[in-house]
User: Fold Heptahelical transmembrane protein 4 from Urochloa decumbens.
Amino acid sequence: MCKKLKKKGQGPLHQTSLQPRGAGELGGGEGTSPMAASPTTTSSCMPWNGVDDGEKEKKRKCDLIGYEALPDWLKDNEFIHGYYRCEWPMKETILSIFSIHNETLNVWSHLIGFLLFLCLTIFTAMVIPRDGGRSGWSSRSSAAYWGDLKEMANMTVALRHEALAACFLLPPSAAAAAGLSEDGQQIPTSCPPNTSSSHVHHSIQIQDTTTSMPTDALTATTAGDPVTRWPLFAYLAGAMACLLTSSVCHLILCHSERMAYITLRLDYAGIAALIVTSFYPLSYYTFLCAPSLQRLYMGTITALGAAAATVSLVPAFQAPELRPLRAALFSCMGASGVVPIAHKLVLYGGTAKGAVASAAYEALMGALYGLGVVVYAARVPERWAPGRFDLVGHSHQLFHLFVVAGAYAHYLAGVEYLKWRDVDKC
Assistant:
């Protein structure tokens, strides 16, 4: 466990504590942070050398600290002044998912998003129709309709049998008075005696009305196999990979410089996976009847994603001054989706409702992603009020929300592709 160590007034290496002060109090001692508008803390990234029985011990505290006390590898956004974790032990770093700091909402926003897409994956596998054809997406398919009629007919047959059997348990006069008939034939007015040595079995012929079911209605429901689902599942896997790696990165990045290097690379790879797999439903289902175009679009975006992930491995790529470059790289990858979408509308915009519906969701997705990138690159609103949005409302948190919303919009587009291609095949 991390123990809080009292400051011994060792000069400018330390900042003031996060403990609240009275009105107008500036804080005593040296090393007071110049950013009075936001709380700062004693630096835990600086080794504290104490003497215990003549031996020096290096102790590290698990306190939240201010921006100026961070090492260079943790400095990313100077407009967020406080509530930083720095070089905490791994156990405390992981358990900090349940504590309050400036990464708490970054962790949970994408962790909840990951669970959402996990549920969507299960839903897609178990609930979305897989029988193909237009009937698979209607509220009452023809197969289900005729199947229900057959069940009702069978139930009626069973009830008739039971009613006729009950007749023979009635007194002869009551059976004669009832005048029951079956298929226009009068039931005998005298029931046979119920003796142990004599059992009469009555065979009742009832026509199965379901045999007259139109063959074209049944054929329509089974004509052709459903279109393959793997492009949509690939997208769901890419979305989950992106959200999970982002959540893990924001949680344990502060542990060490080495851990920051590894998790940031994973984070960028997750973003590339989300963008690449987003193209798979679009390219596969749109150009289902044009395999050459299908391979062209899918191969191009896969190559771009691999190049972006490779560039992300360069350590200098993480430098704060390259923030606009990082945003531009992944934005250009996503924006390249305009080409196949426009191509789709040219080919099918006037003939396929599914093409138009999916394009509408993709436009919503692009707007959400684009707005998130603008917020991320501009670092608003914390730029307008430094220190005021350290815990809640800063740009990275808003960016995360836009990413989850945009990814969900693209999932809805994927569902529209399935509706379209299950009905209109090549």
About this structure: The chain has a mean pLDDT of 76. DSSP finds twelve helices and four strands in the chain.
